[in-house]
Amino acid sequence: MKHLFSVLFLALTIGMSAQNIPTPIDNSVRKGVLPNGLTYYIRHNQQPKERCEFHIAQNVGSILEREDQLGLAHFLEHMAFNGSKNFPDKGIINYFEKIGVNFGGNINAYTSIDETVYRLSDVPTYREGILDSALLALYDWSCALTLADSEIDKERGVIVAEWRTTNSPSRRLFTELYKQMYAGSQYENRMPIGDTTIIKNFTYQALRDYYHKWYGPDLQAIVVVGDIDVDKMEQKIKNLFGKIPARTNRGERPMYGLLPNKEPIIAVATDKEAQNSVIQLQFKHEAMPNDLRLSVAGYTKTVIDNIISTIFSYRFEEQILDPNASFLQAYVGYDHRTKSTDIVSAVIVAKEGKEKEAFKHLLTEVQKAVQHGFTNSELERAKTDILNSYEKSYNERNTNRNITLAQEYIRNYIESEPIPGIAWEYDFVKQLLPMLTTKAVSDVFSTYITDENLIVAFQGADKPEVVFPSKTEVLATMENVKNTKFDAPKEEVLVTSLVDKTPKAGKVKKRTVSNSLGTTEWILSNGARVVFKPTNFKQDEILLNAFSWGGTNTVSLADLHSAYFTSVIIANNGLGKFSYLDLQKALTGKIASVSISISDDTEGLSGSSSIKDFETMLQLIYLNFQKPRRDEAAYNTTMDRYRNFIINREKDPRSIFADSLSAKWSCHDERNLIFNTAFLEKVNYDRALAIYQQRFASASDFTFVFTGNINPNDKNTEKLITTWIGSLPKGKTEKYTAQPNCTPKGKVSSTFAAKMEIENIKNAIRYHTPMQYNWANSMNMIFIGYILDYRYMESVREDEGGSYGVGVRGSLSKLPTEQAMLRIQFDCHPEKQKTLINIIHEEIKKLAKDGPSDVDFNKAKEGMIKDYAENIAQNGYWSSIIETYYLYGRNYIKDYRNAIDAVTKETIKNTLQQLLDSGNVFEMFMFQEK
User: Cβ neighbours of residue 681 under 8 Å, at least 6 residues apart?
Assistant: First the structure.
């Protein structure tokens, strides 16, 4: 570490004493430490208004478990919602859901190896008692959990169900690699999910031992960010949390690291369900001390690490476009892996069958950077992109959301990430970047690449086609690459002008204003409709959402595969005079993007930009309409990459279930396509381009919606819109095109087996019926979904311990037919399935017969009202509801709240009974093939 900073500060000609200068703490946040050791962060922020984040970060995780406690750090996290001193039983969930703070979305927690964090998000602040209750919940999480025997026993089944649901190939591979890579250290066997044998059998005292030993104020931080009075909140925290006794005679929190190694550690893990071949080089280093991490030196190093990762991303992005490339993705990055060990990782995702070539390629790219460093053009491009990112963050400094700030302060507490505030960061980076030379950045990277403390890890599918190098081959390849002299990379000149000739502008023919939506609408001379929704939710954001009726419904069955893949092909072809890669270079330093899409019913564009790059976004719209590019080499590379991406998809149980469900639900409709290798073989490049040109032939029937910090009365805005959209060609307009639609009628049940690594059953149930598309029916269906979610949480998860969670959603669709649907999906053990299926159906029948309880009805209503109030303060939501207004005639701003208020327990019963009376129940079950 000393050598690294010697290199860094020598390169920057900064005195070594500068490394000890601490970064300041943003004066917008109040940070303090109570006498008992508890840390707190408090900040006033109004994004959103009348809402607040309450988090408690515990600087403890599964790393601190004894051998008889494996999984108990995570188990304890679950128990925090199952009874405490001030909130007995499910008191925390029940209280906060009554005020619209929903479990899962707003009430949640996570446990990792080194930390545990609980949160109450978007808590209403309109009543003082709510703030007091939120603090009381954090207090109970800190020191007053009940941990009742009966609740512990009930939760065992939930944890085992979570283990089953989340037992993915990636987790199995991750767990196996940890055992090999970090053998002999505490990290070898401390995955948070733990050991199911221990989970089923641990003593109550083992859990209580962990809680009482490690949960204490000196290892905890309270984070409160939102629409609150900072002085009053600080006093509340001092009064409540100051009385918690300090942790005494319980030992210091150990900071475990990884063991050093002179020879490379070579780890290999395979799984029959793995989707990709992934190869990693991990270079271990002593972790930067916390005081340095919080210093100017530490911040400087973080910026340099960002530059290094960015430059490698440029290189890899270009290389994957080579049809002969051996890999699909790659990156280089620096991370704080453990409390005492940092790691530089170089990672590559190999094409199947090319694992050895990809491994050599990764070593080669690292060695090239060691030998020759980076070019001036690469460095300047990275500086421009990074500075632009900081500028955008600075411009958005007054519109940061509460949860974003809360998470930043948690990182400060857990990881010693500096929190000087974006004003300081932007100013510092503006001064730093001009000082950074290619030699400085290259020298820092070279210090990371060492022969000792190296880990080489391979993971992929357990199949003959996947061949990783042997240990002998690994060592020989490493030696060979190290001794090879590579050519230095060449400098490049970037072309940044997107359009050579400005088109002749159109005109605004008609202007109207919608008072209910707060929008301004223009009709241009070419027939295009432009809608503006000015907001102040983000100071430097403008969103684009453009749409037109048409879509793949207008395409013949023979061309359908090509139509569905058109958006992917166009995105990789580039635009105008630019290949895909040259376009990315031309957009260096610009925050502007546009992508096209073709769905069943519509075609469209979506995008975003900063204020200063608004014209760039408009130029991208123009190029997408006028200058799509033909690039057969890019097409061939794209198809090859996608073949490799999906090569193992047909062995993935989740994909098998989703594809089978989709096919059966559509009555095996030929137009319901399954994305697999056979799909790709039916894509025709010429037809895809022709379909694209047909769908985007004119702007006449497009509606372009711009949401964000934009002024429709600004003369320059009008000039830009009429130039880049008004100049687009005029053509015919289209209406919605229908295709025959089929859904199973009556009671339909399908059961099949598939190969799975664990014993599990995937269950999907759908109730459906034709139903008139109106606000009343829509809202009742949404209420039904909310209420059944509460019921299944209690009956399936908590009482039965049968499933980690039941996904349930009620909806009403307009197209292709007006139809109500209740979707239910969950995983479970085969022994539990029959019981749980009965519960699923009985809860629905009971709700139709008796209606919801007052508690559940009010929770659903409050949750929907609260969510709506938060949604209408986000640009993305406005963009979506404006599209809904123009396509379907629904005005969310005028009608949504009234529709909520019109729902009663009786209307819920009636709507659900209508669903049941149809007799249409579709079920699909997939179990493990024996």
Answer: none
